[in-house]
Structure formats: C-alpha cells, structure tokens
Amino acid sequence: MENVQRRYFELGVALILYKWTVLRVAVENHWGGPDSGDKRDWLAGAVVDLFEDGSQVCEEDVEARLLQVMQDEFNVDVDDDSACENARDIMIIYQECRQGNYEPVTKLQLRHHAHSTTPIQIVVEGCDNPDDDDEASDASMEVDETTAEPQPLRGPVIDQDGFEMVQNRNGRKS
C-alpha cells in the first residue's frame, strides 16, 4: 500500500471507530481507565497493523481484533453485530483505498464533521509521486497540506511515518 493510500486507510479506520457506539460509550465513560481515548486510537493502529505484513486479512480477523481489544482494554463484551459491521466497513475502506478511491473515507469524514465537535484531520506531508495530481491535490478530498507555519489542530495528526503526532494544549505540534 502506498503512503497516501495508507494515510487514507488509517483515517478511515479511525473514523469508523470514532462512530462505533459501543466504543464511544466506553471511552466517554472511561471504562478503559483515564486513557480510554488513547486506547481507542491505539485500537485503530492495531487494526491497521493487521494489514501491514502483506498477509491476507479477512473480515473475521478484523472482527476478532475489535472484540479482543474491547474485552481486554475496556472490559466490554460486544453482544450485538456492531463489531462485524465495523469489520465489514474496514474491509471495504481497505479495498477502496488500495484502488485509490478515497471517496468512502471522505464521506465518513464529512459525516464525522457534521456530527462531532472534535473533527479528525489528517495531514499529508508530501507524496512519493509529486506528478500524480490525483493523490494529494484534489480539493474535494479535504486533506490539508502542511505549511511552514504551525496551525491549530483539532484532532489527531498523523506524520509521514504513520505515527500520531503529540500536540500541546494550544494545538501546536511539540
């Protein structure tokens, strides 16, 4: 998976997890302790990591990871089909991102912005192929290019190596 594809996939997974009602309730009520929000973000990374080693990942693998982390980190037994639905959505996002179609992620992001006071943003810090206009310059994708000046950020920012950047209370990168 190319860099831009990976970034959109990471964003898609995070957006799916942010809208998952069971996980949102667990985080809001600190069922995973005071670091519940960090555990949710870690879960997004753990799901993305399933796809990293090049092995074939199926919907059941993703569902198992979601259920395991919900049990281990939040002490929640998910009895409904929401983990299965989210696993299916994650697999769809993965396939679409691999094909260079970021529209499903963009739709999730727009829905998240419409229903949330804390939007998730992703910053694309350069592309492997600057000649490809479809990757990072399409204005409809709503991806912010970085500038030399620090800008206030409202959500997690992923750096070019795929790690979430730590921000201080003023919203500037530290």
TrEMBL record:
Q: Which GO terms describe its molecular function?
A: ribosome binding
Q: Where is this region: Disordered?
A: 127-174
Gene Ontology terms: cellular component: nucleus
What organism does the UniProt record list as the source?
A: Neolecta irregularis (strain DAH-3)
Q: Give the record's GO biological process terms.
A: maturation of LSU-rRNA from tricistronic rRNA transcript (SSU-rRNA, 5.8S rRNA, LSU-rRNA); maturation of SSU-rRNA from tricistronic rRNA transcript (SSU-rRNA, 5.8S rRNA, LSU-rRNA)
Q: Which family does it belong to?
A: Belongs to the TSR2 family.
Write out the biased-composition intervals (Acidic residues).
Answer: 128-147
From the Swiss-Prot or TrEMBL record, give the protein name.
Answer: Pre-rRNA-processing protein TSR2
Keyword rRNA processing appears in the UniProt entry = yes
Q: Classify the source by domain of life.
A: Eukaryota
